[in-house]
Amino acid sequence: MRFSVISSRKIQQFTADLVSSVEAWDPFLRFIQLRAEESSVLFQFDVVICLKDIEGRHQQFYSHSSVLITRSKYFAERLSNPSPSNSISVHCSEVNFDHHVNLLRLFYLPTELILDALDSVKSVVGILQSAVNFKCDEIVYCCIQYLEAVPWEDKEEEHILRAVSKLGPVAMPIIARIQPVDLAATKTVFISAIRVATSIVGPCPPFGNELKTSAQEQVEYMLGEDEDTLLVKADDEVRSVARLGLLHICSTFENELSSLLLEPDLASETADEKIMHSLSDLEWMCSILGKMDLMKDFVSNWAESSNIVLGVIEDKKLDSFMWGLKIKLIEVTAKVLEAVGYGSVILPAPIRLTLLKSWLPYIRKMKPLLDAKSSEDTSFPYKMNEDLCQTIEGAIVTLVLALPSNDQADILADWMRAEQVRYPDLSEAFEVWCFRTKSAKRRLVEVLDGAGNATLTL
User: In angstroms, rounded to a whole number, what is the distance separating the alpha carbons of residues 71 and 101?
Assistant: First the structure.
């Protein structure tokens, strides 16, 4: 192989250009400058690396064959074959051109300084891919070390996975960060998150409500549909903790609600924020239990506590206050009525009747009050919007029609005795009840006669 020795003037110019173009590479610059000062013989380069891309961009790197052989198995193979030229051409794309440049510069850093010279995920992923292509084992290892230790963004993670997917065992530190955890670990984290989200573990200073809110968001996210979620939410221990959380939240809400009657200033923001935060937790629990097939537990608790809740909210002391609380209670009740009315939750007829008789009069009273407040003040924010009204009305109609005939008659008679028969509109239920009443005796007689019964007393 024929080598050419580069003059000292070219060496000095190369060093100056290098310093001006890569100022961020402090360890590299210190190393180059130190060696340049110590000996000009060190910079008697014997190989030129020519980088070229398809856009015509090119750059030359004056290098040492000894460094290339030590750092790269690819260059070691190229230099092992005699060649009349001391030039090696490397073709690359426009995208990875800069990564090739950065890789070649790393060749001249001591191994212990390579890791410190890496400065961003995007750059290191590119260098890693180039290092893999050129079989630079030490630099690949340093890139893996860097990527394993620094935080990633979602888009960066995708690039990292593509870069390390074929590296085998050397990439395990990175793979370990993103591989799915086993079911037992998922279950443990999920249970802990539920405990924090429902305040079973008590307050968590100095984080306070921020940690609880974060836990609630993550529990909801973790309940997304996938195979592991189905197994976790079906686990008896997980369901038990969820039920415990429900009891704790319901108890807290009832206590906070009852304390309103002792509040000296119901118009204060503190009183309103406190009870609304507690009710927000209850609404969140309703959503979570629905995803865990535990909605029946929520509905049962709501039915049991309805008398207590209504006893407080209908107290005269609250007549002109807590409108946000009142509308939010109606929204939660709508979810309960919908679950029961459309068969998502199966409850005995007496409980369904109690639930309906408890909340129907309150909803019927609040609708015109809220409408009147909205008419008086267009900025009044607490309204029963059309979707909410339709949801409640549809659920109540189906609930009424699923009750025993006599109970239907009681509810419909009470509805028609009201001064203003407006909302909810139960005329559909009334029409069905009338039709059934007229035909019920005839149909029942026919059925029993067909079964051989000669007499029937109604």
Answer: 14
Residue 231 neighbours by CB under 8 Å, 6+ apart: 183
Tokens 């260059």 sit on residue: 75
Cβ-contact 368, 412 below 8 angstroms = no
Is 291 within 8 Å of 344 (Cβ atoms)?
no
| pTM, two decimal places | 0.68
Give the β-pairing of 58-63 and 47-53.
Answer: antiparallel
C-alpha distances out from residue 189 to 39, 192, 193, 213, 439, Å: 60, 5, 6, 16, 58
Q: Could you list the pLDDT tens digit for every one of the 458 residues in the chain?
A: 333 444 445 444 544 454 444 444 455 544 554 454 444 444 578 888 888 887 778 888 888 889 999 999 999 998 888 677 788 888 888 788 889 999 999 999 999 999 999 989 999 999 999 999 999 999 999 999 999 999 988 888 888 888 888 888 888 888 888 777 678 888 898 999 999 999 887 666 556 678 889 999 999 988 876 666 777 888 899 999 999 999 999 999 999 999 888 887 777 777 788 899 999 999 999 999 999 999 999 999 999 999 999 999 999 988 888 999 999 999 999 999 999 999 899 999 999 999 999 999 999 999 999 999 999 988 999 999 999 999 999 999 999 999 999 999 999 998 888 765 678 999 999 999 888 887 766 766 666 666 555 454 44
Both tokens of residue 39?
Answer: 């000996």
